[in-house]
Amino acid sequence: MSLGDELRQLLGSDAIADDAETLAAHSGDKWFAAHQPFTVVVDSLRALLTGAPVGNTPYLALAWCVAIAVVAYLWAQAAFRRGAR
User: Fold this and answer.
1) N or C, which terminus of the chain has less Cβ within 10 Å?
2) 82: helix, coil or strand?
3) Domain boundaries, the chain
């Protein structure tokens, strides 16, 4: 199994079981697996490279990238202010 296959298995939405007992114990995991940035970025790249219809996945991927950049910027600003004292 290649590294890419292992990453898809770990980060993909199908890595979480669908039975009721597991869903009750890991309801947040299923939501995260379905809405994480890795999924929309890979889906949009795959669609763009294969010529398939892309839908709104490029916009979601861009929104995730912007959100992560904003959070990282704010976190860096806070860390810099804390370290300057």
Assistant:
1) C
2) helix
3) 3-83
